[in-house]
Give the backbone structure.
Amino acid sequence: MRVGLVNDVPMAVEVLRRIVVSRPEHEVLWIARDGTEAVRECARRPPDVVLMDLVMPGMDGVEATRRIMTDSPCPILVVTSTVAGHLSMVYEAMGHGALDAIETPTLGLAGRVDGGEALLRKMETVARLATSSAPSLAATSAPRLAADGPPLVAIGASTGGPDAVATVLRALPPGFPAALVVIQHVDRAFAPGLADWLQKQTPLGVACARDGDRLRPGHVWVAASGDHLALGGGGRLAYTAEPRSAVHRPSVDVFFASAARHASGGCGVVLTGMGRDGAQGLLALRQAGFRTFAQDAASSVIFGMPGAAIEAGAAREVLAPADIGARIATLFPVPRA
């Protein structure tokens, strides 16, 4: 794996370099000391993954991520001194296309690097997600079961998703009569932060989904596990390890397929992201009578997931996120007092 390092702190650069070259299959392709240099290097020599710091002099990591994903897209993993301390910047960077985030490993006692193995695992996961073309996992022929509970708005997103999801949610008014579930490809360690960040974008209640939670109107659940979120009988949410072969965890396809069987109707939405996750699941929702949407190419950071959904004939409407939110608001008007 060819890796680009972006960091202005010499000690951090040395720690990251040691971790990368500790595996013979990895190499440091280049080192950039600020965002401007990183944008230039990505255009000249695209790496397999960029390890992007956030706080740097001149152009910071958020703006560098935006420019890289606009001009010469490649997988970006945010590596910052404190994820919690830079949470707003983390989700801004993810909104522009960063795939995940992790804290910078440190040099511990006796020269031992703390956090190196976690970074290597994260790098491998990001590279795998970026290149995955695995077939979808949804069973579109599954029989529809009796359902109860409120209508459901099911949203799936990956690269660039946080900002797109927030844009959809901002269009929905207080008292919105449907339940919402968001499947965003994000490490479970950062799902609580994503839920907190989304809560600031919407008047609706937002929380991480827990086993046994039951859908209710005007509330948003965010998948928050290394397993898959699924909808079962009685409108209850649950996590499942199956299918274990799924590259994306949580999988949009898995949740959409379960919603097609158990939800009482509603909408399915596939937003920006790499790969094809969600395409067959959205088709299952359309076949079950749901209104289905895919984000348009012009507004997508990466058009992979919505493009695959459109190609599969799963999307009834193709719109920008703000327009998707506005359409959903008209489909489920707030009851008059």
Notes: The mean pLDDT is 91. The chain is about 35% helix and 20% strand. The longest strand covers residues 27-32. The longest helix spans residues 116-131.
